[in-house]
Structures are given as C-alpha cells and as structure tokens.
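User: Hey, quick favor. My workstation is busy. Could you predict this chain's structure for me?
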Amino acid sequence: MEEHELKLIIAQADDAINREDFDAVMSFYAEDATLVVMPGKQVTGRDALRKAFVAIAEYFNHTLHVSQAEMVVIEGAATALVLAKTHVRATMSTGEIYDVERRATYVFKRAASGRWLCAVDNSYGTDLLQ
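Assistant: No problem, here it is.
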C-alpha cells in the first residue's frame, strides 16, 4: 500500500520546526489552525501559532527535535485524522535531557488549492483526557 502524502508533509513540517524556520512552519497550517501548546493551553490563528513556536523553541533552549515514528492516516470528506507516535527531545538549559514519546492527533483539511493544511495540532493526543 502506498504511503499517504501527509506522512511526507508532516516530516517536512517537523524539519522546519527543528530548524526553527518559523515562516516555513506556518506554511503547513490553516489560517485559523489550533495548536495545543500544553494540556490546558491552546492557541488559534497563524500569528498566535508563530508566537507559540518561538516560545517553545526558547523553552527548550533551541534544541528541540521533533520526529514521527508510526503514523496512521484516516481520510474522509477532504479531512484527514493523523494518529502518530511523536518523539520529542531537547536539552534543557539545566543540561537535563527531555525525551518523550507522545501519541499525537493531528487534523488536516484539504484547501481549495488541493494542498493539505493542518487545522488541529495536538501532540498530546488523548493524554488531554487525563
């Protein structure tokens, strides 16, 4: 079975996050997208997302590295739900290593141009229920 194109798109977005190329990062999001920054805190809109990504990079001492392991893409009605094992690692300013695997959920919508754009970025997945 052929891999879904969203897997490549997400890998490209992760690369932009890792390089702190925030202009490129924003190109993967819908104008009114929502990012779960942490449990209990989310932001909506590209301007707010950009500010959040800058703050996240600073919080992680500019060492943040995000990657995806397994992914399942469920597509219907120009919308796709992506379930992923997301690996997040960084070196904190204290020298402590931050290294976690999350079970993320992402929602993408196909724009009129045919391009997939992230509408909901929730790297915490169902952990938000706890």
